[in-house]
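Standup notes
- DV: blocked on the single-chain target, sequence here:
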Amino acid sequence: MTVDDTGSGTGAHPAPGGEPGRTAGSATDPAPAAGGADLRGDEDAGDPQGRSNANARSDARLDRTLSATPSPPSEPPERLDGQGRLDAQNRLDEQMADSGEDPLALRLEQLILGAERRYTPFQAARSAGVSMELASRFWRAMGFADIGQAKALTEADVLALRRLAGLVEAGLLSEAMAVQVARSTGQTTARLAEWQIDSFLEGLTEPPEPGMTRTEVTYPLIQLLLPELEEFIVYVWRRQLAAATGRVVQAGDDEEMVDRRLAVGFADLVGFTRLTRRMEEEELGELVEAFETTAADLVAAHGGRLIKTLGDEVLYSADDAGVAAEIALRLIETMANDETMPELRVGIAFGTVTTRMGDVFGTTVNLASRLTSIAPRDAVLVDGAFAEELVRTQDAPASEAEAAEAAATAEKEGEEPPAYRFALQPMWQRPVRGLGVVEPWLLARRDIPGAS
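- DV (later): unblocked, structure below
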């Protein structure tokens, strides 16, 4: 956020995120459901039956809320007397008149942020006790546009700045790491918010009754959804944080916490570019969503980690080569059984991977991508290191001759033969752009397709 004390600078108004569970007027008080539309009464706390009752009451609450004119106070309702409510509404009206922005947009912003606009960027930085330069770095990292010296920030923005700066001052984070935290959080939540508006709220805000406008129903619906969605997001984040922490502490040494040996897989839809020219946009969107959903479910169910989706391509990782192989073959089998889906190809490599902001980088990732581009349709190609790892963990034999010999030896000694899950077939060596000559291996099952 590049600004100076004179108020120069332009830009669209951002929607700076506050802290979960925080409200206007106080940087530390839990946020109630705005407008009194809290789905959970005190009697429901910790009581499953109470939460069921709350769900049953939500329709009645929505009916009552729909009949009210949206005019949120800037402070929790229980804190404001009649004069306080009037003052808050007057301030909001003044902001509307000064900014020229849509009144409903401002009311929605105040509802979601739980606070009214109070500070310019310079005032917010000064109140938080940080330099304007550092405040600008944080805000830009979170993905918000420069706004000059418009009065657009809230108490929650000040608190967020103060907390990030406090982590740096306490030595818990370096300044560069704090900026990374802001950037990764901003990028992730921006995508989440866009998805919720496009796919979730868009459908919910269709007028429930003839004659009602979307404007009339959007505000009360957000009043009802906001506290519940907020709690759910925090729950999922804590779950993901616990899982990620567990993976890190199980690393063999400190170096593995950043540069780890992983299996990295790319799954790519064949002929997707041609499909984009033949299919309607809505059909194409449905196909991509079905592919991403199927891939995400399979990766999670078998113990992998979905790194990202790129429309026609999915990138995933796994600590164990056998897990990565199972995911790849399941993807091929699942897509092959769906007549609406194009053919799929998968490439997997195993080796050292650098992780940053939830993404993965390095030669191993590049090799997996190249293997995908040369893989046959409905097939999985892996690199030599991945093949060696499958052999080491006895998930696959080095060759079918070795498998037959091991089975004969086991039978002679009255033992169970090795239960190899996968088969590896060496392919012709070939040059791969940017990586030299590689010898890929074709991965297949040795058991019945689809069996556990």
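- Follow-up: Confidence is low (pLDDT under 50) at residues 1-80, 448-452.
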